[in-house]
Structure formats: structure tokens, C-alpha cells
Design a protein that fits this description.
Distance between the termini: 48 Å
Oligomer: single chain
Structural class: alpha+beta
CATH architecture of the largest domain: 2-Layer Sandwich
Bound molecules: flavin-adenine dinucleotide
Number of strands: 11
Strand content: 15-25%
Largest sheet: 5 strands, antiparallel
Amino acid sequence: MSDELLSRLSQRLIVHSGVSPDEVLGETKVQGVKLNGQTYDADAVLFMTGVKPDVQLAQSMGLEIGGLGGVKVGTLLETSKDGIYSVGDCIEMHDRLTGKPVLMPIGSVAARAGRQAGVAAVGGKKVYDDVSIRFQYDRIFDTDIVCVGISSVIAEDLGIDANVLYIEDPAEFTKIALVTSSDGTLIGGQVITSRMGARIGYQIHKRIEMGAKLDEAPLLEPLHKRMRDHLEETLGPIQ
Ligand SMILES: Cc1cc2nc3c(=O)[nH]c(=O)nc-3n(C[C@H](O)[C@H](O)[C@H](O)COP(=O)(O)OP(=O)(O)OC[C@H]3O[C@@H](n4cnc5c(N)ncnc54)[C@H](O)[C@@H]3O)c2cc1C
């Protein structure tokens, strides 16, 4: 968990990092959790953990598995066997920029992959280029956390020469990290904010989809400009 998120959580929450619970206690509702042999009282237990592709079914069918442990698929989500398509957490997606395999266990990607595979399975030739753009939105207590596209860590793993631009809007209690490729094209963004995270995430997503450069399509305009635009939209031009 990032320091930024930790600093925003209520002091009443206890965060244990890098450990797995031995047991969640309680019969009909959560009453506590056992960690490293020690028992803690709790009204709720929230796990943050990774995801591993479940490929048992695919393996039993003889489908090819990739180097990252997910089902290997082509651009149309076709597997190594004719007429069989695979989507979701169990597959290795193709990164949009490099074509390299990546794991993206997230519903937004699974849904778009489903659309692509469905179209291909009935003979459609359309290739959607937004299939592997991740859009993840979580609201943890009173904080929106949004991850769109590629993070700087994933960029490094994929060998993309990326830059990160940090912007802050203190009036909205918002911090944003924007990831751009070496030519300035927006390829990812992460947002942490008290509200409207999904809306900012959508703005980032739209720009990634368009292949926009940040200087052509800046993300957060200064507050006074937004206010002026809002007033002009609702009341007409300001003289
Ligand atoms: C706690 C949690 C919160 C999440 N929150 C979000 C979120 O906010 N936004 C988001 O985009 N994504 C979220 N995700 C991720 C999202 O749920 C997954 O990416 C998405 O459900 C993957 O779809 P899928 O079809 O691959 O797998 P699943 O939705 O897991 O569906 C697989 C289905 O196949 C069935 N199955 C498995 N093996 C067999 C078999 N041998 N025979 C028959 N059936 C079988 C399973 O029972 C299951 O019903 C979350 C995931 C978790 C666990």
C-alpha cells in the first residue's frame, strides 16, 4: 500500500503489510483476525492481494500456456486451438504499445476482451485497440484510487522509456501521476483523490485511447479557468 494512501486512512484502521492472515474469526460475522499467531479484534477485514491465472481448464484442453502462466492468445483472443477463444483473468493480454504479453486481471479488460472475442468468434474482422487499456477504480473508505493504462513500474518491465509527471490540485485534495512515453504521448495515469476519481480516470482513459500528447490535451486546468468555463457555460460569456 502506498504511503500516500496510508496517510489518508483513518487512524482507527490497522494496516499489516506483507503478511497473510492465519484465520478470520467469527461465526456469523467477523469478530477478529489472527496474524502471525496474534489475535486482533476487528469489525471488518480487508485483503489486498495479487491474482494468479487459473489455467486448469485450459491445460486440460491442451491449450498453450504462455511464459507468465496465462493462456496464450492472439490479437483476436484466439487460443492455440482453432475455434477456441479465451478472455479474462486467465489469459496473457498483449500490451498495446509493445505487443509483449502482460497479465491484466481486471474486469474492465475482461469485458472488452469478451467483446473482441465474441466479434471474432462469429467471423467479425474488427480489431478493437482499447482491449488492453486497464481501468481500475477502487474507493477505499473515503478515498478514490484509480489506475488507468500503464504504470511506471509496468512501463519499466516492458522496456518502455517512460516519464512521470506529477500534478496536484490541493483544492480538490487530488494527486495524479501521469505516465508518458518518450514522445510525450500519455500511456497511463494513477489518481488518488477524495472524490471524482472515476471522472478524472475517464479523462485519462480518453486521452490514452486517442493517443494524445499531454501538451495538446492537458488534464487538469487551473481551478479559476474551470470556474470561468463553468460560469460561461451556465450563464453566458463573461465580459
Ligand atoms: C474482490 C475483488 C474485487 C474486484 N473489483 C474489481 C473492480 O472494481 N473492477 C474491475 O474491473 N475488476 C474487479 N475485479 C476483477 C474482476 O472481478 C475480474 O477481473 C473478472 O471477474 C475476471 O473475469 P473472468 O471471467 O476471467 O473470471 P470470473 O469472473 O472469476 O469468472 C470465471 C467463472 O468461471 C467459473 N469456472 C472456473 N473454472 C471452471 C470450470 N472448470 N468449469 C466451469 N466453470 C468454471 C468460475 O466459477 C467463475 O464463475 C475484482 C476482483 C475481486 C476478486
